[in-house]
Envelope biogenesis factor ElyC
Amino acid sequence: MPFLFLAKKWLGSLLLPLPLLLLIAFLGSILLWKRHTRSGMTLILASLLALALLSTRPVANLLLAPLENTYAPFETDEQLVDDIIVLGAAQVADPRLPLLSQLGNAALARISEGVRLAHAHPQARLIVSGYAGGEGRSSAELYVEVAQALGIEAARITMLPRPRDTAEEAAAIAPLIKHRQAVLISSASHLPRAMALFATEGVSPLPAPVDHQAKESTSTLPLYTYLPNARYLERSERAWHEYLGRLWIRLRRNE
């Protein structure tokens, strides 16, 4: 892989909440060891407090909901749809597992919606993308198998297994959907950034958000649901990743 792509992936991973806050706590420990007691304790306590807050449902949903609420769910109606685009997501191409078990939750939500819309619009082309990322088989390949297993004919599917990130997906797909009515399917939190990248390529597909995580129950939840939980930290991480991605886009545009 090109150095810049790997560097971006490494930097993005290190700036996510858990590694970043652990690094801050580690720096605080060094300051304590160097007898800078007040500064060291401040860093350690601040990082632990931030980690605890990001692991709670209210904070996680507060970060994620503005992203997920950007677009309403796509309504299947009588409008013409020429193309249905399913963006890539994490996969583990383990041949020992059933096909659906090789896809992550986001990937499952995306291809499920893609197949649903493909059945609702039988004249539409299904475009699936996403690279292998060292897994041997790309998410695009697994998407094709899922779609065919669920009744979509191979002739209707266009597979793009080479794009490595959303920017490359937008660049590869845009020429295929020029002057066509396309629907773009991705996780609700990711879709605002994806739509911005497709707009940069000169196309404006219709948004179809799926995989919503910032869900709020209409009933009163038990108090223990407000305790820190790894599930909520994952939501905060998802939101953090998207905000970093949007910042990266702005920095690139200002170059």
The first helix runs from residue 3 to 14. The chain has two domains: 12-68+229-253, 83-210. Residues 12-68+229-253 form one domain. The first strand starts at residue 83 and ends at 86.
